[in-house]
């Protein structure tokens, strides 16, 4: 086996730690990183979907055991999400033909990352009221269509979109929203991966497997470290994380690839050092 494949095992391991700590899909980290490293957009997306498929399978099994999945709703969201995914895939491939996919994907990434960074970093006033849509199934269908489109456009699970929408416009409590979101994302990610495979995207299966194995090894470590931190700190750190990744993607767009990669490496090292320091303090204290 080529030594380069072991690098992807290590990369998957570190992505797994970050994903396990923050509870986010690895695709939101992996896709921009692969673009920075020079991968074609369709290959970067398909590879990220492979990594995400592994995490959504394990996540779905876990939440099934906890009885957090509302199957009827997850089938609606996931089923309509397949339509959104099917719309996005040929769009990405068409943009790739005219050399526009990289730019479009990067701009959408920056927009979403800045939006969520703002949500985590800026305090918001809470009224204690939730305004759900009157038509429940219309809300579920909208959630699935939007998440499916974003999933295959960016190579992410879509869960970071599904969960807040289930809470905000469907009226879910958070625990059930997370479980149902992951089960829905499983259908969406699987359909996206199939769509890119059928379109003859040059996916390196071995790279995907190494990333999945690494992520499965790293995720429990990140999840365990989460117990050492208070929720407000985690939310603020996640906001900083999203903001830094957005800056990295912006630097890559303007052609500063070395600076872009350096920002991601520095962010990862600081994050891992923070976990190590706090973990030792907790152990010694």
From TrEMBL:
The chain crosses the membrane at residues 6-26, 33-54, 74-93, 100-117, 137-170, 177-199, 205-223, 235-254, 260-278. InterPro entries: TM_pro_TauE-like (IPR002781), TSUP/Inactive_protease-like (IPR051598). One of its GO terms (cellular component) is plasma membrane. It is found in: Cell membrane; Membrane. Keywords: Cell membrane, Membrane, Transmembrane, Transmembrane helix. It is a multi-pass membrane protein. Belongs to the 4-toluene sulfonate uptake permease (TSUP) (TC 2.A.102) family. This is Probable membrane transporter protein.
